[in-house]
């Protein structure tokens, strides 16, 4: 028999774990790069840029357009990795908490 109170308790527990995981995302960092490592961006999993490193060979005026393109590529790479890592962190935090219902991905439901 379906126990609604037990299920509601599980939902609250899942919400608490997701909230805790989301709080941790600011401390988890990923690195994106472009131009064979000439531009590197470190971002946290809250999609905030933490560090930008540009190889000295790219700082000349003639390289401005290339540098701009490489920074955009590195930032986008870091943001993709941050999204993936955040989804994995949320999934780990809620693993085994809810029944496995085909087609129901809780990581997306909670902002993953």
TrEMBL record:
GO terms for cellular component: bacterial nucleoid; cytosol. Keywords: Coiled coil, Cytoplasm, DNA-binding. InterPro entries: YbaB-like_sf, YbaB/EbfC. It is found in: Cytoplasm, Nucleoid. Residues 90-112 are annotated as: Disordered. The keyword Hydrolase does not apply. One of its GO terms (molecular function) is DNA binding. Residues 4-31 form a coiled coil. Its main location: cytoplasm. Binds to DNA and alters its conformation. May be involved in regulation of gene expression, nucleoid organization and DNA protection. Belongs to the YbaB/EbfC family. Homodimer. This is Nucleoid-associated protein PEDI_04050. It comes from Persicobacter diffluens.
